[in-house]
Amino acid sequence: MAQDLIVRVRGRAVAPRDLITRIRGRAAASITVTVGSGRNVEPYESVSLQAAASRVPDSWAWEQLDGYPVQLAGSGSARTFVAPATLNGSDLTFRVTATIVGGTPALATIVHHVYPHTMWRKVGNDIAPVVLTV
Which residues lie below 8 Å from residue 123, measured CB to CB, with a gap of 6+? Predict the structure, then answer.
């Protein structure tokens, strides 16, 4: 003999098919994410990337989209990198993604311009940046 399953939600009996309909019909959670303005930086400068979200996300992901490759360090909504030394400078483009369960990921992009490194020395048949230490 088959029995009907009854689920209690906030003290009220709900048939499983009604519960599934309610879950499927629920509006997807939304989130927005922002980053500050890009800026001009010097070679070898430590640069911070910081994002903010309209609600606490389940996960953050940062990626570099363009420019001279750099190594990102950090976790969550913040990352840092050291600006590269290049002969012509470089625009570094980064994207952050904030995700919440059941919602659409929110994206934001930021571009930092790294000035050209102006001091170079000849090393064999190549050139290398001169790093000044104080």
Answer: none
Coil, helix or strand for 19? Answer: helix
Chain position carrying tokens 């922002």:
34
Q: Cα–Cα–Cα angle for 108, 61, 72, nearest 5°?
A: 100
Give per-residue pLDDT as tens, 27-64. 445 678 888 889 999 999 999 999 998 888 899 999 99
Per the CB < 8 A criterion, the answer to whether 81 and 71 are in contact is yes
The token duo for 100 is 């919440």
Domain 33-129 bears CATH identifier 2.60.40.3010 = yes
d(CA 121, CA 133): 16
What is the reported pTM?
Answer: 0.70
Phi-psi region of 87 (alpha: psi -120 to 50; beta: other; left: phi over 0): alpha
Distance CA 76, CA 101 (A): 16
What would the two tokens of residue 122 be?
Answer: 């000849």
User: What is the three-class DSSP state of 22?
Assistant: helix
